[in-house]
Structure formats: structure tokens, C-alpha cells
């Protein structure tokens, strides 16, 4: 497998250029992986030797396999799930997870103590991985747009998936690093000297990509050929749809303060109740369940799953070094069923270590669980916040209470119908904390976008790192100094590094 230290490394991109097809090597690697490893994603078995620069986008099956391969790479671990996944790493950075004593070393220690360095790269790195994926996505967009041989419906679906993924990767880059380069081409010359783009501009481009995706993607789940629909009720929810694009759009609009559009997009998903509905807490993370808008199938699923790295069957150790923090445990209200259903515990002597139990299987044979990326509960909370910001407090309370009702908590409409806007926004943020914990960085991002991070981490950091006080600069991860040395247009680094 090809290893690239940075998308901005001139020497590696010159090597690609000398091969005369920028990005093709990665495209072929991804397509080959998808055919070899993602058997449920891919039912077509084109021989790997048939994938060449001339025919990869002249055949529906091989073109689909390129996008399939990206999902396979996400499901194989790296920075998306498991030991180095977004949920675990962001939980350590925020106030969700505690790092067990005796496991203080490497990435986990740096993340937990909010003590990242521009000299020492997280391994694997979000920066490296996302830009590597963006190179593949941009190469796919160029190949798909140039192709005249694909079935029109397949071409539109794959273009929609590529725009969706480009928006998805940029969304996470900008929320981890702040200002980042927009990657819109596979041309190594442009990527090698790209400058950073203002955060709001990146988010606006995320929105534009997702709008294009929404126009192109199917409104039904398609099979691995990117063409055939599943029979109603038997969908594998593992390729993006219009509804997945709407769900991320709603989130992006929320992050930019476009409350009206955030409400509109969330409403599109919520109103599609033939596909989506709140499930029971016990089944909310099952594969292909009605709560799921988009899931990822695990690859090499014995060790890359959320359950494998979160569920404790013994004391925290090298493989499973984290457990839920007292800050998160203390956030649950008395009687909250999520505390019982989504939190497990392992006791040793007088000590009990509590852990996330949203996923039930520590081992996941035959993909009995998939990685949940987007689910309907978030859309209710997005719409609640957007409505509150627009002074529709009654509508916001109604959405908030949908989530509280499932958790068997008292309804705000009953206990505090005259709640103020400010108090309601705080209640929604609290509900996000206990509903979306250890999922895809929601808590870490929420603290930053709502301006609460200094107050919260000012209390949390001295517990995680005794003797130190929180520095607001630490809410952004640093760029690696080596990348800046390769491309001075990335300078200056984020403040404080």
C-alpha cells in the first residue's frame, strides 16, 4: 500500500506526475482493495488486472469500485474507528473519556492532556489521511466527469457520492484544524503550494459540495453497482443518499449559523418517516435499523470496531485504555435510560470502570454491527437548536422532547414550558452531550462552535493534567511543522504551536 506523509510533499507528487496520471495509483489501489476486501459492498468481481488508466471510468463496475474502496478504507480503521478513531480521540481531547493510569504514552497521552505538538505527528494523522482521501475523490470526480461510457444513473450516483465525500472530509478537517487548504483537484502542482483557506469559506464550500451531492444522489439506497435499488425494508444503508447529504447539510448550516436552512434540511430527513425513525435505545446502533441514515461496514472487523476498543471485559489496558469520565457520567439526569442502556461497567474490587456500550459486540463476526455515521436523533437536535435560534421555542421544545421521551425523561413542554431561549439552548447542548457522546467528535466540536470550550475545559484540563491550566489555543490541532517546511504557504501554524 502506498504511504504518503503529506499531500503537500513535492517529491511524492512529482513521482505521481512522472507516472503521468496524478492520483491514478491511489484510485487503482482503492478499487483493488474494494474488490478484494469489501465483499458485501462489491458483488461484481472484475479482475484487478483490468483496472488501468484507460478503462477505470469506462466500466460501471470498476467506476463504482473506486468509491466503494473509499468506504472500505473508512471501515478498515485508520482515523475513523477503533483505537485511532475520531470518537475515541475526540473523546480524549474533550471531557468524555478518561485515560487509565499506566497507559500514558504516545498519541493517547497527548490527546488526553491537550498537549499536542507541531513536531510530533499523530499517527495515523487526520491531516494526512483526509488529504489522501481527497486526492482519490478529486481524481474520481475528474474521471467521472470526463467519462462518456458510464450508465447515466451510475455516473450521477457516483458523482454525488464523490461530492458528498469531498464535503465530508473537508468538514472534519476544518473542525480539527481551523483554516485548511481546500483540495479541489488532483493536480500535484496546485496541491503542493496550496494556502490555507478561512474556516467560513471552507464550510461554504462544504455546503456547495453537499448541495451538488444532494442533486445527484438517489433518494433510495443503491447496491454495490450504484444502480440497483434494494427492496423496501431490506436496505443496506452503506452508500450515501440524498438524505445523507441533507443530514450533513443540516449540520454544516448549523455550524455556519444559517438557522433557517439547518431547519429546512433536518426537516427533509425527519419527514421521510418511511425510512427514518427513532428506534428503541437497545437497537439504535444495529446495522440497517430505521435510525441509521448512513453507516459504514467494518473491514477486518475483529479489531477495528467501536465495540472492540470501548467495551471493557477486564481492567483498562494497552488495547482498551479509556473509560467514561466523571464529567460525562455526571451529566446524565436521574432516570435517563441511556445511562443504563448505553453505558456499561466493569468492576474490580471497589472500583468500577464505565464504558460506552452503544455498540454491543466487542467482537463483530460477519459484520453484525456497522459503524454509525449519521442518525436521525442528531437531526432532531439540529432542528431543535435551529428553531430555538429563530425564536420558535415551541417547535424547539417539541424536537428536544422527542429525544427526552425516548430516554424516559420529563418533557420540557410539561416541566418548563415557559423556558427562556438561552436556557433552552443550554438544554439542547446538554441533550447533545448525553445523546451523542463518543460519536464522531460531536462533543469536542460542539464546545468549540458554541463558545463553551474555555469554560468547560478550564475545569476539565486541571483534572486531566494536574498543575496546568487550559489554553484556548489548544482547541485546534496543530499542523505538522514538517508539512509547513515543505509548503511555506501553510504558515503560520495554528496559534500556540
From TrEMBL:
* One Gene Ontology cellular component annotation held by this UniProt entry: cell outer membrane
RagB/SusD domain: residues covered: 350-497
Where it mainly occurs, coarsely classed, is: membrane
The family database entries (InterPro entries) matched by this protein are listed as:
SusD-like_N, SusD_RagB_dom, TPR-like_helical_dom_sf
Q: In this protein, which residues make up the domain named SusD-like N-terminal?
A: 106-254
Q: Where in the cell is it found?
A: Cell outer membrane
In its keyword annotation, does this UniProt entry include Lipoprotein? Answer: no
**Family matches, as Pfam families:** SusD-like_3 (PF14322), SusD_RagB (PF07980)
Keyword check for Signal: yes
Which keywords belong to this entry? Cell outer membrane, Membrane, Signal
Report which superkingdom the organism of origin falls in: Bacteria
Similarity comment: family membership: Belongs to the SusD family.
**Designated name of the protein:** RagB/SusD family nutrient uptake outer membrane protein
Amino acid at each position: 500500500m502506498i504511504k504518503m506523509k503529506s499531500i503537500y510533499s513535492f517529491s511524492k507528487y512529482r513521482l505521481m506526475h512522472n507516472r503521468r496520471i496524478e492520483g491514478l495509483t491511489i484510485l487503482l489501489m482503492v478499487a483493488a482493495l474494494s474488490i478484494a476486501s469489501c465483499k458485501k459492498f462489491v458483488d461484481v468481481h472484475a479482475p484487478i488486472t483490468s483496472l488501468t488508466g484507460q478503462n477505470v471510468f469506462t466500466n460501471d463496475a470498476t467506476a463504482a469500485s473506486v468509491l466503494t474502496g473509499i468506504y472500505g478504507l473508512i471501515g478498515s480503521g485508520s482515523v475513523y474507528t477503533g483505537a485511532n478513531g475520531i470518537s475515541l480521540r475526540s473523546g480524549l481531547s474533550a471531557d468524555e473519556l478518561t485515560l487509565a493510569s499506566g497507559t500514558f504514552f504516545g498519541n493517547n497521552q497527548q490527546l488526553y492532556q491537550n498537549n499536542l505538538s507541531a513536531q510530533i505527528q499523530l499517527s495515523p494523522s487526520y491531516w494526512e489521511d483526509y488529504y489522501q482521501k481527497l486526492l482519490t475523490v478529486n481524481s474520481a470526480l475528474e474521471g467521472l466527469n470526463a467519462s462518456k461510457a458510464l450508465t447515466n444513473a451510475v455516473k450521477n450516483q457516483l458523482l454525488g457520492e464523490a461530492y458528498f465525500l469531498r464535503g465530508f472530509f473537508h468538514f472534519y478537517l476544518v473542525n480539527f484544524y481551523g483554516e485548511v487548504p481546500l483540495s479541489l483537484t488532483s493536480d500535484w502542482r496546485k496541491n503542493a503550494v496550496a494556502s490555507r483557506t478561512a474556516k467560513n469559506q471552507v464550510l461554504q464550500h462544504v455546503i456547495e459540495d453537499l448541495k451538488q451531492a444532494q442533486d445527484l444522489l438517489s433518494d433510495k439506497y443503491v447496491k454495490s453497482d450504484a444502480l440497483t435499488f434494494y427492496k423496501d425494508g431490506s436496505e443496506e444503508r452503506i452508500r450515501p443518499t440524498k438524505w445523507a447529504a441533507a443530514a450533513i447539510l443540516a449540520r454544516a448550516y448549523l455550524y455556519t449559523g444559517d438557522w433557517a436552512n439547518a431547519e429546512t434540511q433536518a426537516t427533509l430527513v425527519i419527514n421521510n418517516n418511511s425510512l427514518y425513525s427513532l428506534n428503541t435505545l437497545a437497537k439504535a446502533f444495529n446495522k440497517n435499523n430505521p435510525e441509521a441514515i448512513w453507516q459504514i461496514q467494518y473491514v477486518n472487523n475483529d479489531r477495528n470496531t467501536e465495540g472492540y476498543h470501548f467495551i471493557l471485559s477486564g481492567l483498562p489496558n494497552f488495547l482498551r485504555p479509556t473509560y467514561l469520565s466523571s464529567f460525562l457520567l455526571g451529566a446524565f439526569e436521574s432516570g435517563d435510560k441511556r445511562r443504563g442502556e448505553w453505558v456499561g461497567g466493569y468492576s474490580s474490587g471497589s472500583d468500577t470502570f464505565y464504558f460506552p456500550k452503544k455498540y454491543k459486540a466487542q467482537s463483530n463476526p460477519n459484520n453484525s454491527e456497522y459503524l454509525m455515521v449519521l442518525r436521525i436523533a442528531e437531526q432532531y437536535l439540529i432542528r431543535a437548536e435551529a428553531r430555538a435560534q429563530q425564536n420558535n421555542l415551541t417547535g424547539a421544545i417539541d424536537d428536544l422532547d422527542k429525544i427526552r421521551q425516548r430516554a424516559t425523561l420529563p418533557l420540557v413542554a410539561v416541566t418548563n414550558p415557559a423556558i427562556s431561549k438561552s436556557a433552552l439552548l443550554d438544554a439542547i447542548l446538554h441533550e447533545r452531550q448525553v445523546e451523542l457522546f463518543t460519536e464522531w467528535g460531536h462533543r469536542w466540536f460542539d464546545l468549540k462552535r458554541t463558545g463553551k470550550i474555555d469554560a468547560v475545559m478550564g475545569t476539565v484540563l486541571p483534572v486531566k493534567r494536574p498543575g496546568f491550566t487550559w489554553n484556548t489555543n489548544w482547541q485546534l490541532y496543530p499542523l505538522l511543522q514538517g508539512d509547513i517546511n515543505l509548503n511555506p504557504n501553510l504558515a503560520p501554524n495554528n496559534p500556540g504551536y
